[in-house]
Write a structure and sequence with these properties.
By secondary structure, the protein is mainly alpha-helical. The protein has a single domain, classed as Serine Threonine Protein Phosphatase 5, Tetratricopeptide repeat, CATH 1.25.40.390. It is built from 19 helices and 10 strands. Strand 6 and strand 7 form a beta hairpin. The relative contact order is 0.14. Keywords: Cell outer membrane, Membrane, Signal.
């Protein structure tokens, strides 16, 4: 009963963004008297595992809205879709609010552990709880900075804005935005702490493990364009878990052909799905659809044809309409392949791509890649990321980091005959901070 009271108390504190930013929480909310209490908070998966930041996918280029669907959306959704410079969240951003609620949960657990004695008898449980809290905080900060910060660049990271790094449960403390360098360092510190404390594998795919922490570290370094550790951490995952689904064994006619908690999944988390990405509204980009070869099973596994001959996405690794955002084996193959390609290990990179693509094509039809030069190989890796990792919360980050490295990708939307353009490295790639977070939290907005 006590555990339930603590949990419901914390959840009610975050029932609105105004309360989160403006009110001092009841002191009892942070009272966690046992490791079981702490674990109960971390196990409340509707909050901690089902609310990863989704607004970035609503801003990315995998889909489009018809004029009619765009007109039916709320003004905030319309403005996000067209990359407007401000007024994106009215009255607030659920992604921002829930992210900081999860960071509060992680902080409450970590503070409580200072008051619980670690003993020989409870050491494994104690460390597991600590690792899960560090993992939750680290991955949440990372998703926040992918969305509300510019692309990481070593030359400018100390000057560009990151996100507020709340590291305790004191609501009265005004926390300014850290810079990008500080934000990424905090992410790395948390994820490395998680990898130290967690067991190699979790006892559930809803809980963290060393494999999960390594997967998030691979993502972190990839987004910084630091490719050797990105490949190394992906390799650490694949040395333990490397099974790929054979898409020849899936029923492409099913509403959602890919099963939930399948063999590729290391940890199952989900995006908070923006209204614009609902299957009935989001139409897949035609260039993306045309990029699949005739023998590439992903075209039938990932998409269904609408009555107007457009395509809708059904390839969720969640086994249903929600979008999977967790760590999975296919992504780790792609992370390692990109790291290998960019550091000159071309054959190893091609081996990884061939291993993945063999399972994605009709049996006996795939022709393995060979003898690609570095430029062509990197292009192929990036193409496969776009085709494989749809709606997983990664595309916005990928576009930003590739453009920071000189890719020159320009995004375009067309509504009511007017074209809207987002140029490479535009300041709007750092999405506008929610207005009430600016006002109540006293933080600085992104430059425009």
């Amino acid at each position: 009963m006590k555990r339930t009271y603590i949990l419901l108390g914390i959840l009610s504190a975050f029932s609105s963004c105004d309360k989160f930013l403006a009110e001092k929480p009841d002191a009892k909310l942070a009272v966690i008297n046992s490791l079981e209490d702490a674990q109960a908070l971390l196990d409340y998966y509707p909050n901690v595992d089902r609310n990863d930041v989704g607004v970035s996918e609503a801003s990315a280029d995998s889909y489009f809205l018809s004029d009619a669907e765009w007109a039916r959306r709320a003004e905030s959704d319309q403005r996000i879709y067209l990359w407007e410079k401000d007024q994106l969240f009215m009255p607030d951003s659920r992604d921002w609010r829930q992210s900081y609620a999860n960071i509060y949960t992680a902080n409450a657990v970590l503070e409580s552990l200072k008051k619980i004695k670690r003993t020989t008898q409870n050491a494994l449980q104690y460390d597991n709880v600590a690792g899960q809290a560090h993992l939750l905080r680290g991955r949440t900060f990372l998703m926040l900075v992918w969305t509300w910060g510019l692309a990481y660049d070593e030359q400018t990271a100390a000057q560009n804005l990151g996100v507020p790094l709340r590291l305790n449960t004191n609501f009265n403390e005004k926390v300014p935005r850290a810079n990008l360098e500080q934000t990424y360092q905090q992410v790395i510190d948390d994820l490395k702490a998680a990898s130290k404390y967690l067991p190699l594998r979790g006892n559930s795919k809803l809980r963290g493990s060393k494999l999960v922490a390594w997967g998030w570290l691979s993502r972190t370094y990839l987004s910084q364009r630091v490719y050797e550790p990105a490949a190394s951490y992906a390799d650490s995952v694949l040395q333990v878990q490397n099974t790929l689904l054979d898409y020849n064994q899936l029923n492409s006619a099913a509403a959602f052909p890919i099963p939930e908690l399948n063999a590729e999944i290391v940890m199952d988390t989900r995006l908070s799905t923006p209204a614009t990405l609902a299957q009935s509204r989001a139409k897949m980009d035609s260039t993306l659809i045309l990029s699949y070869a005739a023998n590439d099973l992903r075209k039938k596994i990932y998409f269904r044809i609408n009555t107007d001959k457009s395509y809708a996405f059904k390839g969720n690794y969640a086994g249903g309409p929600t979008f999977f955002s967790g760590i999975a084996v296919d992504e780790m193959y792609l992370n390692r392949a990109e790291g290998f390609a960019r550091t000159g290990l071309l054959q190893k990179s091609m081996d990884d791509l061939n291993t993945l693509l063999l399972k994605r094509h009709s049996t006996g039809t795939y022709v393995p890649l060979q003898n690609l030069n570095q430029t062509l190989l990197i292009e192929r890796v990036l193409e496969e990321r776009k085709k494989e990792l749809i709606f997983r919360g990664l595309r916005w980050m990928d576009i930003k980091r590739w453009n920071a490295g000189g890719a020159q990708l320009t995004l375009k939307r067309r509504i009511n005959g007017q074209e809207y353009v987002l140029l490479p490295n535009d300041l709007r790639y750092a999405i506008a901070i929610p207005q009430n977070a600016l006002e109540l939290g006293g933080i600085e907005d992104n430059p425009r």
